[in-house]
Every structure is written in structure tokens, then in C-alpha cells.
Design a protein that fits this description.
Layout: H1 5-18, E1 23-24, H2 25-31, H3 33-39, H4 53-73, E2 79-82, E3 88-91, H5 106-118, H6 122-138, H7 164-173, E4 177-181, E5 190-202, E6 205-212, E7 217-222, E8 226-232, H8 244-254, E9 259-268, H9 273-278, E10 281-286, E11 289-297, H10 300-305, E12 311-315, H11 317-332
Length: 333
């Protein structure tokens, strides 16, 4: 049975941290069980020459180089040292891999403790719980509850979309993805090849901001409109990743929160309270209708469609046309 990669990486890290002198590839290969297995020639070498001693050495070398790169990516500082005989060795000095002590004041510890309680997904719940225990050890008192003064309130970030977890991992690993996406104005989904930057929760909805390779520009995708499975495609990003603040502003703009003009709509009386809350003017028209002037930004057409027959767009004409296009797409199924 193959030894799990996590166990192999742990064994390699322990070997490199536990040595006082650089260890050669040969010494590491003989010390770690998974490498011993990888370097052992296959019994079918007579039938498959590539599985003989040379093939086994190649297999071990590839495995070792991948593991070394993975440990470095995780933050382990591995030194490469060449001795007088020209043999290359590896070690991870403890003083280079020791984190400074964590010091938190009461407000910092409480803020991080609060953040750890937010996540409710199964995948993140364990990590958040473990982090909270470490925060307790680092200065968050056992008796302090950030919610004590507001016991009836508890922040949550619910995530129901199946795409959240693979996209979260893709953002973390800087790994391009492909998925099927259905625009609000389209009847059927179409594939998108995206370099994911960040996930943002905005007004109760999750959005992915990233670089759309097919369109050659940044785009924002609402997770609830992603259909099917998120799949990894290729390695490495082709476009620079902007600052987190810029990504958040981008999501806000695509979600319709940044408006540069106004729109005039008719709204049925007693409905559309979120629209009324944003309105700059409201005028009663009679016959069960009101006229509202509301900020007009990107995404307003998609929002207005959600109110169905209770909203009629008066102007501008382009917004009215966009809303009609979306309604026709919905009618087509």
C-alpha cells in the first residue's frame, strides 16, 4: 500500500530538521520508507526496462524534487549545501524555521476569536476550532466571549454552493479552473476558463473575482450561477493578481454597489422594499404604482429582474432593454 503523501512530507521534514549536518539524497532515500519503496526496482523489470534500477532512480528523484518543492512552498527553509567532495546535501536549520512568539493584545485576540467562530462549513470548522484553541493559548482568555454582550447575535457566513470549496482551494493554490456558468441573461450555461483571485461575500451572495482567459479581462462570477463541477486546468497564472482591496472594489462594482448615474422605474405599491431603501426620490402615481429614482450601476438590470412584474423600467432605454432581454431569457427556460 502506498504511503500517503502527507506522511512522506512529514517524514522528510523531520529528517531535515533533526539532522546536524546536510543529508545527501542517498541518505534520505535510505531513511524514509516511501523513498525506499520508490527506489526499489520493479519485479517486472525484465518485461519493462523503464522499471529497472534506472527507472526506480528516476522515480525517486522526481518524487524527492516534488516533495522538496512542496515543503518549501509550505514555508520550510531548506538549505542546499555542497561538501568538499562535491556531494550535495540538504538540511533545515531549526533557527531558520522557528516562528517568533505570538503576542496578541485583548482586542486582537478577541477579533481573531470572533473570526474563527464565523465559519460554519464542515471543511473549515475543524481548522477554525483548532485555530481558536491556539488563540486561547496565545492570549484569548477562556472566560472571554466576544458575543457575551450580544448573546442573541452570532455572525455566520453560510455557503450552500458546491463550487465554494474547490474555488477556495484554487484561489489559495493559484490554480486556473474551468466551470460552466449561466449568466442571468442566458438560457444555457457556457464554459469559462478563469484564473481565480479571491472569493468575496457581498450582500449575502458569494462572488469569485478572477481573470477570464477567454475574454482577456477581469470578471466577477456569482457562485450560485456556476453549474456542474469546478475542474482544474493547467498551471500558473498569465495575468497579475491585484491587491485584495482592488478585488473587493471590483466585486462591489459588478454587484451594482458603485453607481455613476440614475434610473427611473415604476414600482408596484407595497412591494420592492430593498429598491425603496436605495431610492433617492419616491413619487406616488396612483392606481397602485409609485415612481422611483434609484442609483444605476453595473448589475442593476439583474437585480430588477428579481422583482418580476412589480417593476417597470422607464429610463434609461439601455437599462430597459437589458431587463427585457433577461426576462425573455428566463421565459425561454
Amino acid at each position: 500500500m502506498a504511503i500517503a503523501k502527507a506522511e512522506r512530507l512529514m517524514n522528510l521534514a523531520l529528517c531535515l530538521l533533526g539532522t546536524r549536518r546536510p543529508l545527501s539524497k542517498r541518505e534520505l532515500r535510505d531513511s524514509i520508507e516511501a523513498y525506499v519503496e520508490a527506489a526499489r526496482p520493479d519485479r517486472s523489470a525484465a518485461a519493462r526496462p523503464d522499471r529497472g534500477a534506472a527507472g526506480a532512480d528516476d522515480s525517486f528523484n522526481r518524487m524527492f524534487e516534488r516533495d522538496k518543492d512542496d515543503l518549501r512552498e509550505l514555508g520550510l527553509v531548506i538549505e542546499t549545501v555542497e561538501n568538499l567532495d562535491g556531494e550535495v546535501g540538504y538540511l533545515a536549520r531549526r533557527d531558520s524555521n522557528r516562528l517568533p512568539p505570538i503576542t496578541l493584545d485583548a482586542e486582537e485576540a478577541a477579533a481573531l476569536g470572533l473570526a474563527a467562530k464565523v465559519w460554519q462549513q464542515a471543511r473549515l470548522a475543524g481548522a477554525a476550532s483548532g485555530a481558536l484553541q491556539k488563540l486561547r493559548a496565545a492570549g484569548l482568555p477562556e472566560g472571554v466571549d466576544p458575543y457575551e454582550a450580544h448573546g442573541a447575535l452570532e455572525p455566520r457566513i453560510p455557503v450552500h454552493e458546491a463550487a465554494f470549496e474547490p474555488l477556495m482551494l484554487a484561489c489559495r493554490d493559484r490554480r486556473p479552473v474551468v466551470f460552466d456558468y449561466r449568466k442571468a441573461s442566458a438560457a444555457h450555461p457556457e464554459p469559462r476558463h478563469v484564473e481565480p483571485w479571491a472569493l468575496e461575500c457581498w450582500r449575502g451572495h458569494w462572488y469569485l473575482a478572477g481573470f477570464d482567459r477567454d475574454r482577456g479581462a477581469e470578471r466577477v462570477f456569482r457562485l450560485s450561477r456556476i453549474t456542474g463541477r469546478v475542474r482544474s486546468r493547467g498551471t500558473g497564472f498569465t495575468a497579475p493578481v491585484p491587491d485584495v482591496v482592488t478585488v473587493r472594489e471590483t466585486v462591489a462594482g459588478w454587484a451594482g454597489e458603485i453607481a455613476d448615474r440614475s434610473a427611473r422605474i415604476r414600482l408596484r405599491s407595497g412591494s420592492g422594499y430593498p429598491l425603496r431603501a436605495k431610492a433617492t426620490t419616491v413619487r406616488e402615481l396612483g392606481d397602485g404604482w409609485d415612481e422611483l429614482e434609484i442609483p444605476y450601476g453595473h448589475g442593476l438590470d439583474a437585480w430588477l429582474v428579481e422583482f418580476g412584474p412589480d417593476v417597470v423600467v422607464l429610463e434609461p432605454a439601455e437599462l430597459r432593454a437589458d431587463v427585457l432581454d433577461r426576462l425573455r431569457a428566463v421565459a425561454k427556460g
